[in-house]
Amino acid sequence: MNQFGFPVNYSKFKVTPHQLTQIVYLTSISPRKELPEDMSRSRVADTWDGSEGAYLKLHNCRPPPIFIPLIILAETVVFMCYTVAASKDNNPYNDVTAFSGNPNSSSLTYYPEKRHEVWRFVTYILIHKGYFHLIVNVLGQVSLGCLLEAAHKYWRVGIVFLGGAIGIIGDGILIIYDKLISENPLHISVAGHIGGFVIGFLLGVIVLQTGKMERWLKILTWGCVVLLTILVLMSVTFLSICGRSGWCPPIKLD
């Protein structure tokens, strides 16, 4: 037992996942305080091979998470603003509840017919349909986003986060489906979420890399780069042609 109250294997110098979490936490809240030699992050990382040791060395919370907390703050402020505005319009159907309250008239909301207003491709991430939607998103961002940012820093996480937001271009596929196949228009948020997941996943593989890359990982990364480039170019080309021809009909927003 050491002074922190849990056992350390001095012979093999290995730690459990729980101990590893405490190492990261202790060194992040007190960076100037020297930990015992057996609990040093760099010493423990040196006992790990490959990407595990490299990841532990990166996970130093310096600087602490900045991007994700700012996004959460912006989402909360925007939500509060249109909640107050909806409560003053004398229309009870516009009031924000647990599962309703989407400000369709907002200049932040994405509309296919207003795709020339390019900021809407990103600012729609600040819009939430009801406070349950907001709470779930915030919990996910805190539990996953902040941990990723502590290791990969704000600029990498920012690229993945904002790049995933551009996944709203997936509505181009939805437009084709609605125009040629479906009799009942779908909600654009379905395509937006699927597109965001695909774009975010591909960007994560490309951007969130640590340590020396093995050959198979290099092949996978370049494959993701090619696939991402093809998807983005196809979607942008379609949206450009669609917007000029006036062929795309308005799509019902969720």
TrEMBL record:
Keywords: Membrane, Transmembrane, Transmembrane helix. One of its GO terms (molecular function) is serine-type endopeptidase activity. Gene3D superfamilies: Rhomboid-like. The chain crosses the membrane at residues 66-85, 130-148, 155-176, 188-208, 220-241. Pfam families: Rhomboid (PF01694). Residues 116-167 form the Peptidase S54 rhomboid domain. The keyword Transmembrane applies. GO terms for cellular component: membrane. Belongs to the peptidase S54 family. This is Rhomboid domain-containing protein. The lineage of its organism: Eukaryota, Metazoa, Spiralia, Lophotrochozoa, Platyhelminthes.
